[in-house]
Amino acid sequence: MNEQIKLPSESDSVVITTLKYYISGIQLLWQGKTVFRESNSHHLIHIEESKSLTIPLHTPKNIHFDTIEFCVGIDSISNVSGAFGGDLDPTLGMYWTWQSGYINFKLEGIHPKCNSRKNEFQFHIGGYQMPYYPLQEIKLSIPNKKQIDIYLQLEKLMANLDFKTQKSIMIPGKEAMDFSKRFTQMFRTQQ
Question: pLDDT: is 148 or 83 the higher one?
Fold first, then answer.
């Protein structure tokens, strides 16, 4: 992919080489009440595969909704149920082991301030055991229409990262949990 991204607080360029994450538990709400819940809701978003960037929802006709709710990551029940097929297929590079479970969010790239080999960074955020459960719920207000456009603002995720000291997270734990809290700020709808 090698997409260039400028961070808002610095003039340093970041090269993103991998961006994959799971969206799960999709629900539509009207005035705070669930009016649609997708069954078997696990979608792997892979920025290099354009077909993964669209999620068709098979909703009832004439449904009214004003909010979409979803999670970034895979819930603990799916993690302990074992590896599946489709978007949950372990060969897609988003599964560690039965002990650690799925990788909810994978971001890799190059930042000039990383003091690592070739200035590379790797953030593989996952796990499902308490107290470090990094599944994050996202709620977004939306206009009532047939197509919901959701935008990922990666710069919000990366804006306050100190690449000199934090260049890698590769296991479940407190650091992964803290990183996952950033997910709630990086999605928006067109309003």
Answer: 148
Burial of residue 39 (CB within 10 Å: 0-12, 13-18, 19+) is exposed
The answer for 167, left when phi > 0, alpha when psi is -120 to 50, beta otherwise, is alpha
Distance of alpha carbon 138 from alpha carbon 184, whole angstroms: 6
Question: Is residue 129 classed as helix, strand or coil in its secondary structure?
Answer: coil
CB of 8 closer than 8 Å to CB of 157: no
Q: pLDDT for 88-127, tens place per residue?
A: 998 999 998 877 889 999 999 999 988 888 999 999 999 8
φ and ψ at 73, to 5 degrees?
Answer: 125, -175
Phi, psi angles (nearest 5°) of residue 42: -140, 115
Domain that holds residue 162: 3-189
The β-bridge partners of 118 are none
Q: Give the three-class secondary structure for 180.
A: helix
- How many domains are contained in the chain? 1
pTM of the model: 0.88
**Alpha-carbon span 103 to 6, nearest angstrom:** 26
